[in-house]
Amino acid sequence: MIEKYKVRRVKSGIPGFDELVEGGFPRGTTVLVTGPTGSGKTTFGAQFVYKGAEEHDEHGVIVTLEERAQDLRREMRTFGWDLERYEKEGKIAIIDGVSAVAGLPSEEQFVLEGNLNPEDFLRYVYRVVKSIEAKRLVIDSVPSIAFRLREERDIRKVLLQLNTILLEMGVTSILTTEAPDPMQGRISRYGIEEYISRGVVLLDFIEKDVELKRYLLIRKMRETKHSMKKFPFEITSEGITVYPSGEVY
User: Fold this and answer.
1) Which residue in 181, 217, 176 sits closest to 197, CA to CA?
2) Deepest in the core among 63, 93, 96, 241, taking most CB within 10 A?
3) 3-state SS, residue 99
4) Alpha helices of 90-185 — where are they, by DSSP H?
5) Element (H, E) at 201
6) At what angle do helices 152-169 and 118-131 cross, to 10 degrees?
7) Are 178 and 34 within 8 A, CB to CB?
8) Closest CA to 41 of 202, 162, 190, 188
């Protein structure tokens, strides 16, 4: 009789989420977190890395391609998260992928050069992950990697390379992307990201009584039983909290 394979889990650090995915993300998986602007994707990723360091002593890397590292730190302090403390302890590394592209000087320890091609980008991220022995990685966001690419085949090639190297690293990864029109099934910028990812989490809004409410939907999670219901969540003064027993408004 074949012994049943037991999936090792990684805690998300997001209250209420892990019970939706049998206790956490499968270790070593790649999860796409998608949604429209302002839905909480960056917070979701940062919370995953920060709580990994704070609660589980798991080192993590955040690649910020949308905003400067110093702006990310400031924003996360509103939740009481002191990223800089764990950076000094070597538990978290933030790769600044914005300053050089914008032609701005950067005093960060880890900085992407402005002329990096996608292959060099992936090699650099790999080196930083290995240098701090990271178990968790967030890349915010996928469209910012491929923004110079015009042809769909080039974008597909880069995303497949990204997926392969993430699996080689052995890290549990969160990638963020924009969802152009979730209501019509368009949940990623290129329509490719959800296929290379082993999990897909959609963060979105629904209008109720002339007010926008937030909800979370797990579209896919390999090696995991999960509900296909929409669950309410909030972004509070302590970060994201999901309500697994809640009805969607």
Assistant:
1) 176
2) 63
3) coil
4) 118-131, 142-145, 152-169
5) strand 199-208
6) 10
7) yes
8) 202
Say what the pTM is. 0.93
Helices 41-56 and 69-77 pack at an angle, to 10 degrees, of: 70
Retrieve residue 79's tokens: 């939740």
Q: Which two tokens stand for residue 249?
A: 């408004």
CB 205 within 8 A of CB 9: no
- Residue-wise pLDDT for 49-72, tens only, equals 999 999 999 999 999 999 999 999
| Residue owning tokens 């509103």 | 78
**Under 8 Å between Cβ of 110 and 128:** yes
Instruction: Please list, in sequence order, all residues whose beta carbon lies within 8 angstroms of the beta carbon of residue 115, skipping any fewer than 6 positions away.
Output: none
Residue 148: band (very low, low, confident or very high) from pLDDT cuts 50, 70, 90: low
The candidate with the shortest Cα–Cα distance to 108, out of 64, 69, 67, is 69
Q: What CA–CA distance (Å, rounded) separates 167 from 165?
A: 5
**Per-residue pLDDT tens digits for 156-191:** 888 888 888 888 899 999 999 998 777 767 777 777
